[in-house]
Amino acid sequence: MSDAEQGDRRNFSEDYLAERAKFIRLETLRLTRIAGAGHYSSTFSAAELFAALYYGHLRLDPANPKWENRDRFVLSKGHAAIGLYPVLADLGFYPPSKLDDFTRLGSAFGDHPDMKKIPGIDFSSGSLGHGLSVALGMAIAGRMKNHTYRTYCMLGDGELNEGQIWEAAMAAGHFQLQGLVGIVDRNQLSIDGPTEKVMSVEPLVDRFTSFGWDVQRIDGHNLSAIMATLAALKPAGTGRPQMIIADTVKGRGVKYMELSLDWHVGNLVGDDYDDAWAEIEAGLQPFEKEDA
Amino acid sequence: MSAAGQDQSTLFRGDEGELRLKNAKSVRGTPAKAMPAFILGEELADLADNDPRIVVATADLANSSRARDFANRHPDRFIDFGIAERNMITAAAGMASCGLVPYVATFASFAGILAAEAIKTDCAYPRMPVRVLAHHSGISMGFYGTSHHATEDLGMMRPIADLTVVCAADANQLRAILRASVDHPGAMYIRLGRGRDAEVYGEVPADFALGKATTLRDGTDLTIIATGSQVHASLMAAQKLGETGMSVRVIDMHTIKPLDGDAVRAAARETKAILTVEEHNVIGGLGSAVAEVLVDEDRIPFRRHGIHDEFSLIGPPAALYAHYRLDADGITAVAKEFLQIN
């Protein structure tokens, strides 16, 4: 496939992508209720990023999930897979009904994704700190095999505490893997508290820049900003790997979950479920941080 | 196009140095051709001549494993990841997911212990065809000390589902293992010595099969089941015991997982006692694996020989092997004590 074709991504409207982000949040509610517990807030922070990547950007073929020159996507923060499964079903990788027994005994779909069981999952994840190394290897393979695909890796901000991330970041800069694209879902919280209190990860732009990356920082809930940034990515080739720091809000879309430490894992029942559903359906409201 | 000013064909290499021979000089008593690790790069380069999927990576140890020999012949398929073993093994899994067959070489203490979770999570669980070449295993690093010894790695690898675990006894067997590995399904942990093992196999064993133990010597009084570096020493011990009138079977249990249970059960039926010998803690390695088979069988006298749950002393390897009775004389003595022979 030529570079010109590579630039020929699906071109959906922002309104459509916003609808798909809403769909991701609603499906996360539905599937969590089946499981009895789930990662709402880590998925909500990534909803616009998932929507933009999968409906507007990645070069994929759901009818041929193993297509050799497809773009790769590694969900290093594997606990947000609950937001990715409905997208893959929606795109046609498998029937949506496959999710109806989400996490139940024998289901292919667990809290963390399994590439051997789920079409469209390019690599299994769950153990934090591994994904960027996996993506690094995919990008190296792409270069060795003269493919033009890009490899995308979505990282959590808390997982940047893991040392292996920086081993991979160092290698990507050293090998000049321009086709490697990192996306940090900078949702500000890890489990025990704000990242900057638990184990600070900033200054992220300076850190990745010093490891040899091109780094951009954007609003990770602003679909036009996300789409413009993705559209401007350089093709696979020799040059600095590309990092997008997406500033997001953990729990975005359900007011009381936003930047709350109580909802990393949870289960909504009764009226709470219905209220959250209605709030998500109403669409994103301006984010206001409550005074501490 | 090349921002780094490098030719892409050599972009993944470390330094451009040619093969250095300084490590090959002070070899005690064994001919150069009998150095398993030293044929590693050459054999993989031969295999890669006909198979574009094969790539080799190391973590700043291209000379220790002679992966450099591969790099010199296939520079575009060699990657030096620097001193970052976990990143190397996980990245190899990513490469494998794109159709490559990566062979990654580093010291066993860093491959099988430091990077154990990468082997489990990224190689074995998704059944990626990554071949981890864990060289300088056991106590073969001698006076470099406990940080560089690996007497726990088999114990860490064995419980990992869908992982094949193999130990090479010498250079020719290593060639057979590498040839058998190319199309073997799933991930492999291949345990090597320091490249100075004495010759067990005069030529590349034609009948080698993963998971199928090799009986090197038949006998009825005792079976010694050995693996890796201890196969040669056990054969020599069997010869010494033979000179005293004992009939000793020697089994090379090169594949630790899946273990050849039939060979163990046959030994239990056909010989009077079983002794396992390994350059590894007796907890978790070959002895444990054999015990797990024997526990379901009728009682038979059984002993494990190896490192008995301690961090090894430091010292020159030959001195350590003598101290821990992991040489011919030592194994002979252990066998006599076990069978209560004077």
Automatic annotation (TrEMBL), chain A:
Domain of life: Bacteria
InterPro entries xrefs: THDP-binding, Transketolase_N
Cofactors named for this entry: thiamine diphosphate
Pfam families listed in its UniProt record: Transketolase_N
Keywords tagged on the record: Thiamine pyrophosphate
Residues covered by the Transketolase N-terminal domain: 21-274
Protein family according to the UniProt entry: Belongs to the transketolase family.
Annotated protein name in UniProt: Transketolase
Organism annotation: Tianweitania aestuarii
TrEMBL record, chain B:
Matching SMART domains: Transket_pyr
Gene3D superfamilies named in the record: 3.40.50.920, 3.40.50.970
This protein's name: Transketolase
Domain Transketolase-like pyrimidine-binding: 34-199
Coiled-coil region: none
Organism: Tianweitania aestuarii
Superkingdom assignment: Bacteria
Pfam families, alphabetized: Transket_pyr, Transketolase_C
Annotated InterPro entries: PDH/Transketolase, THDP-binding, Transketo_C/PFOR_II, Transketolase-like_Pyr-bd, Transketolase_C
